What we know:
This protein is an alpha/beta fold. The chain has one domain: Rossmann fold (3-Layer(aba) Sandwich). About 40% of the residues lie in helices and about 15% in strands. It contains 7 helices and 7 strands; from the N terminus they run βαβαβαβαβαβααβ. The protein has a 7-stranded parallel beta sheet with strand order 3-2-1-4-5-6-7, with helices on both faces. Helix 1 packs across helix 7. It is globular and about 50 Å long. The chain starts with 7 loop residues before the first strand and ends in a 15-residue tail after the last strand.
Amino acid sequence: MPRFTHQTALITGGTGGLGESHVRAYHAEGANVVIGSTPNGLGKATELAAELGDRALAARLDVTREDDWAAAVATAERTFGTLTILVNNAGVQHPATTIEQTGLALWERTFAINVTGQFLGTRAVTPAMRRAGGGVIVNIGSTMAHGGTALYAPYVASKWATRGLTLSAALELGRDGIRVNAIHPGVISTKLIHEPAAPGERPISDFYDPKPFAIPRLGDPADVTAALLYLTSPEASFATGTELVLDGGLLLGPALPAGVA
């Protein structure tokens, strides 16, 4: 039997490079999937749901809006009966800029999507997961939450905040049978990495050569999806407050060249 039969997963940013990978995998593993998308991406989310067929639906979900969260959770329960998995996947990067030159609007937008969105999602799904008898929430962070990175202070700070939110929620919700974990991807091969954050900017991939990594390649969305499926499965029933770094060894520093040891 597929691992997620009779489970319902709500995935924010469900049409992005990571999000679509997650949606397809949960559906293939038997779950009902709710594909959360901003109004701009709702057409693509609807097409993806139609392609998958039964057990999939698209939902308008601007993660910064409380009413969108309420509607998405209500739709999931009304359509599928329960909501048991939340993947707080939606996130935004910003153009490189010094703290001195960072406008307040850029700072607030980054936090609104990357942090407030995860807070609102956790708050919105908690009653539904209690009604279902338990559930799992996974927040998608970043390896930038484990250090500092010049020119990306808003993004870095927002991902550090994700860590604190994850750990606090795990402590609050554990006795309700709700596990809360985080995944911190490194450089994953998606549009976010390969396309400039603003016209004239260099893409992030220009600054990361994976050759020194212990695993000398960029990550693939499937790498993150596989870890996500594990953390939300019964096999991880003893894992909460877990922070799983998936970076090929980026944070470790340069690896010993092959043949030297």
